Amino acid sequence: MYEAISFDEKFTKFDDYFRPRVIAQMNDVQFKLARVHGDFVWHAHAETDETFIVLEGELVIEFRDGAVRLRAGEMFVVPKGKEHKPIAAADCKIMLIEPAGTVNTGDAGGARTAPNDVWI
Q1: Which residues are bridge partners to 44 per DSSP?
Q2: N or C: which terminus of the chain has fewer CB atoms within 10 Å of its end residue's CB?
Q3: What is the distance between the alpha carbons of residues 45 and 10, in angstroms, rounded to a whole number?
Q4: 47-73 residue pLDDT tens
């Protein structure tokens, strides 16, 4: 049976922040939804690029040498190894596209590290 994936329906299944949920996988790449609000941690992913797509709200991705502001309908690819920190001043809904097994806090670890491979 074929069925479209509804972002709106998936977002009704969770309300915590910075805890990505997998909604699909294509080969070794996962599509994850997350709610974000406030500051995250400085981190980098040494082995992979990371794609951020803003579905609702606004997200700022800070870098040590600048920042990019994303609004709904916009995306940005953070190059592998580039230290960054996502920030959302208000509730924001995003999609992340990254290889399966990518840790949300990258090399930083710590209390904000979310469990991997949580499907909804």
Answers
A1: none
A2: N
A3: 26
A4: 999 999 999 999 999 999 999 999 999
